């Protein structure tokens, strides 16, 4: 068995705008328009911060929805698409937010990843777009390519057969194709802030007619250094737009943005306890890369390591680690900033569909991903900050399950 160190557990510890009904720039980029905040790489984190026994998982009463999807005044085409997916009862965020969004209210939605918030904002937007047919009247900003792609996939599902069109604007994909798509005047743009800024600067994306702006996972966009871009993009939209603001946390910076961008918002909170509290956390001692590799292979040889998200520090290091795992018979895919958008999408699908048991990733590439049933998070390279660590291990221990996180540390 790997040498898990036994240590006493410790825990890481513009107003006045009218509303129509429903209707900083950093140059430090990481592959495809994603920016990193200015933070010190390799900041020391005491190993005890990586050790914590998961709290006893409390049995949470099943949420009792006040509505069924059939109760919402969606057009029949949307209702048919909802039924085709087998959805009957909305999740908590859907149940509580949809009516307010359809009434034209600004929303602050506090919800963890995987709670159904994408459908909570997309369904009302699709309903409005179907009625108005107005091009370029909605924009959704998301922190990463993968999350933007997931949102676009959901849009296509729920708008199937309705002749509504989206454009996905993300880095790592040919910008000329995106420019051509914009010239066809799609109804909605789903984008990352970096690529959005590139296209605004090229004067091929105008946001004068935006009726609704969605900021999804706003806390992560700020953490990734997008605050200046978000302010610039928002300033390009009409003052009477509707703003839907979703975040897992309310930090002082997030709260400041809500005051700048929203007017008389309805706050809906369906946040659960911090994910890290439902994750067993421990360390694995190893001094050299070879010793780390030996212990990693030993772990991956155990049946309990069913679906593993493995974190490395650099793009090249992540690719080398994935290549080595494959050579040693462990099905692995890599996701990092040097991959094209199609390569990242393919890798993510392979991992989600259990064709690959291990996905090796950098921090930025894994932000915002919603991957079900991750059994283990392994930090092959330590994160730069404790905040990064919390983001990493938040990929396991979801939906009431206990996850496991292991971090390699030097021997002492």
Show the helix and strand layout.
Blueprint (H helix, E strand, L loop, with lengths): L28 E2 L3 E2 L40 H9 L7 H11 L4 E4 L6 H16 L5 E4 L3 H14 L7 E4 L5 H9 L4 E4 L1 H9 L10 E4 L2 H6 L3 H9 L6 E6 L4 H10 L4 E4 L9 E7 L3 H12 L7 E4 L3 H13 L4 E4 L5 H12 L5 E4 L1 H4 L9 E4 L6 H8 L9 E7 L3
Parallel strand pairs: 3-8, 3-9, 4-6, 4-7, 5-6, 7-8, 10-15, 11-13, 11-14, 12-13, 14-15
Antiparallel strand pairs: 1-2
Describe the 3D structure.
The protein has two domains: 29-58 and 274-409, Rossmann fold; 69-269, Rossmann fold. 46% of the residues are buried. The strands form three sheets. It has a seven-stranded parallel sheet with strand order 5-6-4-7-8-3-9, sandwiched between helices. A six-stranded parallel sheet has the order 10-15-14-11-13-12, with helices on both faces. Residues 1-40 and 56-60 have low confidence and may be disordered. The protein has helices at residues 76-84, 92-102, 117-132, 145-158, 175-183, 193-201, 218-223, 227-235, 252-261, 289-300, 315-327, 341-352, 363-366, 386-393, and strands spanning 29-30, 34-35, 107-110, 138-141, 166-169, 188-191, 212-215, 242-247, 266-269, 279-285, 308-311, 332-335, 358-361, 376-379, 403-409. The longest helix has 16 residues, at 117-132. With 412 residues, the chain is α/β, with parallel strands linked by helices. 34% of the residues lie in helices and 16% in strands. The chain starts with 28 loop residues before the first strand and ends with a strand. It is globular, with a radius of gyration of 22 Å. Helix 2 (92-102) packs parallel to helix 3 (117-132), helix 3 (117-132) crosses helix 4 and helix 6 (193-201) crosses helix 8 (227-235).
């Amino acid at each position: 068995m790997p040498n898990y160190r036994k240590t006493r557990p410790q825990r890481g510890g513009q107003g006045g705008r009218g509303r129509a009904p429903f209707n900083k720039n950093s140059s430090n980029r990481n592959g495809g328009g994603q920016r990193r905040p200015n933070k010190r790489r390799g900041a020391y984190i005491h190993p005890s911060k990586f050790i914590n026994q998961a709290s006893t998982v409390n049995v949470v009463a099943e949420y009792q929805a006040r509505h069924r999807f059939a109760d919402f005044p969606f057009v029949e085409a949307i209702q048919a698409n909802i039924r085709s997916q087998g959805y009957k009862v909305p999740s908590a965020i859907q149940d509580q937010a949809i009516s307010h969004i359809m009434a034209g209210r600004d929303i602050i939605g506090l919800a963890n990843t995987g709670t159904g918030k994408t459908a909570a904002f997309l369904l009302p937007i699709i309903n409005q777009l179907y009625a108005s047919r107005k091009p370029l009247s909605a924009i959704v900003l998301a922190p990463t390519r993968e999350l933007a792609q997931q949102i676009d996939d959901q849009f296509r599902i729920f708008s199937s057969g309705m002749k509504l069109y989206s454009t996905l604007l993300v880095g790592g994909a040919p910008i000329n194709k995106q420019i051509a798509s914009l010239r066809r005047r799609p109804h909605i743009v789903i984008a990352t802030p970096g690529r959005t800024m590139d296209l605004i600067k090229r004067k091929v994306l105008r946001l004068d007619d935006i009726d609704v702006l969605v900021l999804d996972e706003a806390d992560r966009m700020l953490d990734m250094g997008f605050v200046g871009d978000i302010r610039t993009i928002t300033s390009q939209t009409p003052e009477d737009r509707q703003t839907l603001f979703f975040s897992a946390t309310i930090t002082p910076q997030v709260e400041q943005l809500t005051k700048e961008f929203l007017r008389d918002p309805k706050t809906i909170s369906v946040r659960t306890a911090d994910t890290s509290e439902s994750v067993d956390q421990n360390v694995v001692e190893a001094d050299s890369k070879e010793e780390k590799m030996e212990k990693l292979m030993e772990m991956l040889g155990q049946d309990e390591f069913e679906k593993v998200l493995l974190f490395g520090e650099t793009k090249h290091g992540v690719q080398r680690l994935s290549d080595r795992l494959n050579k040693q018979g462990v099905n692995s895919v890599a996701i990092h900033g040097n991959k094209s958008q199609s390569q990242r999408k393919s890798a993510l699908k392979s991992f989600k569909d259990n064709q690959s048991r291990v996905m090796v990733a950098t921090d930025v590439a894994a932000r915002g991903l919603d991957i079900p049933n991750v059994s283990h998070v392994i930090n092959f390279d330590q994160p730069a900050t404790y905040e990064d660590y919390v983001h990493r291990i938040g990929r396991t221990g979801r939906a009431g399950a206990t996850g496991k996180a292991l971090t390699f540390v030097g021997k002492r």
